[in-house]
Amino acid sequence: MLDRLKLLEENLTELALFKEKHKIEEIKKGKSTGWALKYGFLESIQIIIDISCHLVSKYNLGNPGTYRECIELLQKFNYINEELETKLIGMVGLRNLLSHEYKAIKIEKLYELLDHLKDIDEFIRQIKDYT
User: Fold this and answer.
1) Of 21, 53, 120, 125, which residue is least crowded by CB atoms under 10 Å?
2) How far are the Cα atoms of 23, 25, 53, 120, 124 from residue 46, in angstroms, in the given order?
3) Which of 93, 74, 70 is nearest to 82 (CA)?
4) Domain containing 8 — which CATH number?
5) Any alpha helices (H) in the chain, and if so which ranges?
């Protein structure tokens, strides 16, 4: 699981660099930069989900039926705090949209989420000792 955590840290760095290098106007003009942004978020969120579900299993926290329940169980047993739980549940919803409904997400909204990368960093910080 440490390799997944390392990849998440690398993705966080790449997403921050993406924000520095690209303006929304540029992303709207070219499809490949939009794809890069979408995939960067999709992969990062999937890693968060994978780590969360792994921790639930590793520490026998319950039998989640959904990705959301993995996050909820981490909070219930104090692996993450409530504020982070809420943000991660939102990310799970975003992951579902990115995976299944590409047209439903406005690139401007996704670009704005680059201002909230600290939430991913906070996840890493809160679960690092448990991985």
Assistant:
1) 21
2) 25, 27, 10, 12, 14
3) 74
4) 1.20.120.580
5) 2-21, 24-29, 31-58, 67-76, 82-100, 107-112, 118-127
CA-derived radius of gyration, the chain: 15
Q: Name residue 5's amino acid.
A: L
**pTM for this structure?**
0.94
Rounded to 5 degrees, what are φ and ψ at 117?
A: -65, -20
N- to C-terminal Cα separation, the chain: 6
Cα dihedral across residues 118, 81, 2, 94: positive or negative: negative
Q: Quote the domain boundaries for residue 116.
A: 2-130
CA distance 19 to 113: 10
Q: Which two tokens stand for residue 112?
A: 């704005």
Q: What single-letter DSSP state applies at residue 113? A: G
Number of domains in the chain: 1
